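FIELD: query
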Amino acid sequence: MKRVLLVVFLVIFTMAIVPSLAQEKIVFGATGLQEDQFTRVLINGYRDKAKELGIEILTSNSQSSIEKETESINNFLEAGASAMIIEPVSPDASVAMAKRVHDMGIPVFACAIPINGDFVFASSINDNIDLGSSTGREAIKFLDEKYGREKEIKCAILAFDSQDPYGSAGRVDGFKDTVVDFNINYVARQDGFMPDSAVIVATDILTANPDIDIIYCANEGGVIGAVNAVKAAKKDGQVFVFGVDCSVQICDMLLAEDNVCQAVTAQDPYAQGQYAVQTMYDYVVDGKEPLEQHKKVDCILVARSDPDGVVAFADNWKARSGE
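FIELD: result
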């Protein structure tokens, strides 16, 4: 009789406990950097992987503001986030808040951009020098055919030094160091990383330097702005644009008959977002350390010389971005 009562008690006790455990929701916090297609696709990667794993993910966009980033992370902490994924405003400016999160016992994942601190649990980082070098290698083919090694080639650079000096410098230096065998005169280097401002900056550079041959742009917004500025100035076939980052809009520019945009090197933010969430889930839920603590992301060249590759990239991007 006592054994029967004990069994009944255990069944009732288990029925009372299991639902409460099932109701506990694992919550992650994840920030994006700015209102561009890269961040939108990155966040889609976060969300899709979280849905697959059955966890809740809270996302926000810092809009390149350290104040906004801090506010978002504080909101995630108040919501009980057990892991924090940060596409930081900058490697240095984001350190203080990320360190605070770490000191609370919550693991921090740096996504796309590094956070300068050995407390970062894991990361998936774009190697900025590799991104610039990849475009530079494609530019070598174009420059050899168009100008040769002796002619002075005038080049302007649109960067994002004020936003992220580390990332901007890597992408610019990667390109410059790759095309070093050419006679290139760098006539201008200015910030232009959002399309609306980049088109103004590029227009001013073209006005001041009407004999420019190429423009190298360190990010998506710069590429879009530069291409639009060249077309507005009616310099199709005279000024050619190379850069880093890709989107459906840039793919359209690479396929356009105007022949302005020549090549960019893309990343895979969707895969990065998925990798970040999976890595943190494995650690928080199963205690599994990542096989590769600081993962280096591969570059994806998207070039006018390979139109099929451009179409394939655009189709894949549309599927992941929801466009």
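FIELD: remark
DSSP finds eleven helices and twelve strands in the chain.
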